[in-house]
Design the sequence.
């Protein structure tokens, strides 16, 4: 009424009286009778689709198009029942034979190709249906049934097939390493925190010597010789059942900090020298037990890119002041000067205190790209091998538990940096769809006794070289 009396538009009239514009629309008529009629047609004519159903409705006087019939037909789940075709018998009236033994049924097929001069090339392939073995392949310019059945190739294949097959004896490989060697192998593998075969093989001799010296392992001369002679691939095969029992996955709790993103550059490795110790990646690991609510402990993990030296610290929360104090404590514990620091985009790292601290001490401060975890691949790897494998996924949120975590990390950092072997990627070559990776000889980040056993021509660890000088 306001629209016609005052000459207002529908929008202004509805706004004036306080009604939504949908009240001025005519309600669509219900399609219940149409749906019921479509079900009747589908039951009566089981081979009718929506097109023929639409034709029936138009003849009955329904005013509707085919698209509406198609929409309702799909919403009601109506469809044409599939027609089951009868299996046809071969022309001679016999069923197709199924192979029950070798040389019982052969299958033959032809392939056609052409050479560079355009001449036809025919290939006749004969396959045993039971063993799936290629009995023979005949290649010729012409290949008729006479050539195939009466030729020398066919007669030779028949003679070979009709011979009595000689049963092939299974190859029995003697077991070189029995349970008396497997148990000490598991003991050494568990002591070194379940490394891969190549890392385990590189430090096997010195680890066995250390365990025997401290009375943790008792071996006979024969068992010691077998254990030291075992290859890295054999170690992986024998330890595969034990390795399959350990797997869990966590989640990320990083929240972006946008305060200084414009001042902190994204890491491009242009300002980084990976050959020098001191350029490190840092990250936080949440110890929340699967529940991100409330306050809980965090593990600050710092890893040197060049050497693999790792320093974990437990902090009460991910507040900036706790993370900053833990970073300064880690810097005091490093055996080399801190030259570069790369973090994610969380506000616990992207803040004024840490930025000013790095600027004053001439530390290159960079950040990774948002949502690209592989940019911090070195520290992300240590988050699993150093933190998660030792602490797990339980929740720690009390001062007593924080103290226990830091006490654990004080021993863990010595164990990881002085005893556990690490392998660094030295080369990655792509050959088609295959990527081949090569690593240096495994050894602890400090070099250690294993550095004396490395090849003189192989790559050495930068920190080992710097400490020896």
Sequence:
């Amino acid at each position: 009424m306001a629209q016609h009396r005052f000459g207002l538009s529908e929008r202004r009239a509805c706004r004036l009286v306080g009604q939504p514009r949908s009240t001025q629309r005519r309600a669509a008529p219900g399609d219940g009778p149409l749906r019921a009629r479509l079900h009747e047609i589908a039951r009566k004519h089981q081979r009718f689709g929506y097109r023929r159903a639409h034709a029936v409705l138009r003849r009955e006087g329904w005013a509707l198009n085919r698209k509406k019939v198609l929409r309702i037909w799909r919403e009601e789940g109506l469809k044409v029942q599939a027609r089951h075709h009868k299996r046809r018998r071969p022309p001679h009236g016999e069923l197709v034979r199924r192979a029950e033994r070798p040389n019982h049924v052969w299958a033959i097929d032809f392939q056609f190709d052409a050479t560079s001069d355009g001449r036809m090339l025919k290939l006749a392939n004969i396959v045993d249906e039971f063993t799936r073995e290629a009995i023979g392949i005949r290649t010729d310019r012409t290949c008729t049934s006479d050539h195939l059945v009466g030729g020398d190739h066919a007669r030779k294949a028949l003679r070979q097939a009709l011979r009595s097959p000689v049963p092939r004896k299974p190859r029995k490989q003697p077991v070189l390493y029995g349970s008396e060697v497997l148990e000490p192998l598991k003991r050494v593998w568990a002591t070194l925190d379940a490394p891969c075969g190549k890392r385990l093989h590189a430090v096997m001799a010195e680890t066995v010597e250390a365990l025997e010296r401290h009375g943790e392992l008792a071996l006979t001369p024969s068992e010691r010789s077998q254990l030291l002679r075992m290859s890295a691939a054999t170690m992986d095969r024998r330890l595969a059942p034990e390795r399959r029992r350990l797997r869990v996955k966590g989640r990320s709790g990083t929240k972006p900090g946008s305060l200084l993103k414009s001042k902190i550059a994204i890491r491009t490795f242009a300002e980084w020298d990976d050959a020098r110790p001191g350029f490190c990646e840092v990250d936080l690991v949440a110890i929340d037990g699967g529940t991100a609510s409330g306050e809980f402990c965090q593990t600050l993990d710092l890893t040197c890119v060049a050497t693999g030296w790792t320093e974990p610290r437990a902090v009460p929360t991910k507040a900036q002041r706790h993370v900053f104090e833990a970073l300064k404590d880690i810097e005091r514990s490093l055996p080399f000067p801190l030259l570069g620091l790369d973090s994610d985009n969380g506000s616990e790292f992207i803040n004024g205190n840490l930025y000013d601290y790095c600027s004053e001490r001439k530390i290159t401060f960079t950040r990774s790209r948002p949502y690209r975890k592989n940019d911090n691949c070195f520290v992300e790897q240590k988050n699993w091998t150093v933190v998660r494998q030792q602490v797990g996924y339980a929740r720690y949120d009390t001062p007593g538990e924080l103290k226990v975590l830091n006490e654990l990390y004080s021993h863990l950092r010595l164990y990881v940096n002085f005893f556990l072997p690490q392998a660094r990627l030295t080369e990655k070559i792509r050959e088609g769809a295959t990527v081949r990776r090569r690593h240096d000889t495994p050894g602890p980040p400090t070099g250690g006794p294993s550095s004396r056993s490395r090849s003189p021509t192989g790559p050495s660890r930068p920190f080992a070289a710097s400490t020896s000088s």
